[in-house]
Write a structure and sequence with these properties.
By secondary structure, the protein is of the alpha/beta class.
Length: about 260
């Protein structure tokens, strides 16, 4: 099996990347909704890594959505300089923007003998190996994410699970303008700060290059996956038409 990798090369609206992710998640859920005989005969959709960088955007996790106030949202939007969006992932408020590699991983856990906890460890290990490729030592602590010191966090991790289908993933700072993190207590951790590959001394690394390294590292950590297959945005958008055709044929999908 291969890991499909879709990299969006230019700055991408957060809502558009979320739409592509939703199509991929629905594709996996459609498979799970098949009658058992059909499900056993049809192969599980392969895992997909969707990587991109977006315009300055703050997102908050699902548990924080009810508590964040309009005043806080207005502050985060920085007078129109940034967007704010609630997300289905776990965790608290974090930042995504230019120079950060956002990587969404969409897969069916049991197809790779993963549990929720081991899926998170897989994401963290993949980021650690990616950092290692660039000569940066990353590690995990009792706090979520990947760190380069007890105070410096280089990558955030947040996931969403539905019927054993995983989505969302990681945000790895490559050349991110770290001033954006000053507007939040990143992931609710007081006294910690954000860092990036660039700040750690890595020169000339692009988000696209790092995305390719991350994809390769993920193949080494996923059971039943041994290669990376690059795909285009049209390959994902085509799933929207497939879903419509399935509905016309009486296919039942639960979301």
């Amino acid at each position: 099996m291969h890991l499909r990798h879709l990299h969006l090369p230019s700055l991408t609206p957060y809502t558009h990347a979320s739409h592509l992710q939703a199509l991929l998640v629905r594709h996996h859920l459609d498979h799970k909704a098949l009658p058992r005989p059909l499900r056993l005969s049809a192969p599980t959709p392969p895992p997909t890594l969707l990587t991109f960088q977006t315009h300055p955007t703050y997102t908050c996790g699902r548990r924080e959505i009810p508590t964040i106030t309009p005043e806080q949202i207005a502050y985060l939007r920085a007078g129109g300089g940034a967007e704010f969006h609630p997300a289905l992932r776990g965790g608290q408020t974090t930042y995504h923007g230019p120079g950060q590699l956002t990587g969404y991983v969409i897969l069916t856990l049991d197809a790779h003998r993963l549990k929720p906890a081991t899926f998170v460890r897989f994401l963290e290990s993949s980021v650690i190996e990616t950092c290692k490729t660039y000569g940066v030592r990353g590690f995990t602590t009792e706090n979520p994410g990947v760190w380069t010191s007890e105070e410096d966090k280089i990558a955030s991790v947040g996931v969403h699970l539905r019927r054993n289908v995983a989505s969302h993933g990681v945000g790895l700072n490559v050349t991110t303008d770290l001033k954006w993190f000053e507007r939040i207590v990143a992931c609710g951790l007081v006294g910690k700060r954000a860092t990036s590959l660039e700040k750690e001394g890595v020169e000339g690394a692009s988000v696209e290059d790092v995305a390719g390294v991350l994809a390769q590292c993920m193949t080494e950590g996923l059971e039943n996956v041994d290669t990376v297959k690059k795909i285009g945005e049209d390959d994902v958008l085509a799933l929207q038409n497939e879903a419509g055709e399935g509905a016309c044929k009486g296919k039942h999908t639960e979301y």
